[in-house]
Amino acid sequence: MKQRQRSFKGALILCLGLGGCAAQAGSVSGVQDAIVPHVAEYHFKLTHAEQGSSIVDASGVLGYRFEKVCDGWVTEMQQIMILQGSEGTPINSAYSMTQWEDFDGNEYRFRMRDYLDGTKVDEVVGKAIREDDMVRVSYEIPVEVEEELPADAMFPTQHSLVLLKRAQDGIRFGNDLVFDGSGDAPTSRVAVVISDRKEAANAADDPDDIARGAFHRMSLAFYPLGAAENGPSTEMAVDFAENGIAHGMRFDYGEFEVLGTLDKVSRLPLPECGPQ
User: Fold this and answer.
1) How many domains does one find in the chain?
2) 138 φ, ψ to 5°?
3) Residue 37 included in any domain
4) In a domain, 127, yes or no
5) Rounded distance between C-alpha atoms, residue 63 and residue 61, angstroms
6) pLDDT (tens digit, 9 = 90+) per residue, 178-214?
7) Percent of the chain with pLDDT over 90
8) pTM (2 d.p.)
9) pLDDT tens-place string over residues 121-137
10) How far is CA 231 from CA 50, 221, 227, 256, 260, in A?
């Protein structure tokens, strides 16, 4: 269950960034300038279940907010999923995460909470700072502990900008180390295949016309750090627009598949920061 909750979050956490690893895809300043801060709502439904699957139905909603502030990007999401087991007992899970990431991709703060049937079962709070030869992660909750990651580890917003830059440049493949701070496997090697440009086909309530442009379908496989030999823990596809909006997403868990559809999206104002 924890891995499934993390997977739903992982797709939408693909939102934007910059920093130490951006050189892999060249300058991303033009991509960053094109990003539209926004709020969005999605709904989820089961699209396929294998015979004998432990899950026979799934539904849910997700609220997402991506905002530009004076010193970086803030991401907030709240997701509720109801998974119907083959034994007839529904599983009601809820997930929330708040992140802040600076514009240079050098500092990242995060707070994650997991609930199962209304009871909090997990909470993680911490921060990560990029140093010359490593990324240093400091956890505050559930215990105070530090860990060191390789210097090429990216943060979620940073990683997403790099993906958008690759899509813009016609680069179709990527393999990156990404840290998001959530769940039992907060650091993963992420393999991605990027499609050609596709025209938008969503029917979202979109008063600002910000989800009508072209997108690239990004198919991702997540390999937990230190356990890549066991294959990907999660596979998903995100229809990621060139302005940073996710038009939709698909999750493949092997025995069942779930589709996330964009219902509503609107633009957020840019910050008034004054002289910097």
Assistant:
1) 1
2) -120, 120
3) yes
4) no
5) 7
6) 999 887 778 888 999 999 999 998 899 999 999 998 9
7) 63
8) 0.85
9) 999 999 999 999 999 99
10) 20, 9, 8, 17, 24
Secondary structure of residue 50 in the 3-state scheme: coil
CA distances for 109 relative to 1, 91, 121, 133, 134, angstroms: 25, 30, 21, 20, 17
Residue 227's SS3 state is coil
pLDDT bracket for residue 226 (50, 70, 90): confident
Would you say 162 and 152 are in contact if contact means Cβ atoms under 8 Å apart? Answer: no
Q: In terms of Cα–Cα distance, which of 151, 131, 148 is closest to 139?
A: 148
* 275 assigned to some structural domain: no
Q: Which of 28-37, 69-78, 217-226: highest mean pLDDT?
A: 69-78
Cross-strand bridge partners of residue 42: 62, 262
Our CA dihedral for 85, 86, 88, 90, rounded to 10 degrees, sits at 10
Range of the domain at 111: 2-119+152-267
Residues contacting residue 134 through CB under 8 Å, at least 6 positions apart: 148, 149, 150, 151
77 lies in some domain:
yes
| Residue with the two structure tokens 């899950």 | 55
Residue 154: Cβ within 10 Å count:
29
d(CA 94, CA 100): 21
Q: What is the pLDDT of residues 165-175, one digit of tens each?
A: 999 999 999 99
Tokens standing for 171?
A: 């680069």
DSSP-H helix ranges across 137-275: 156-168
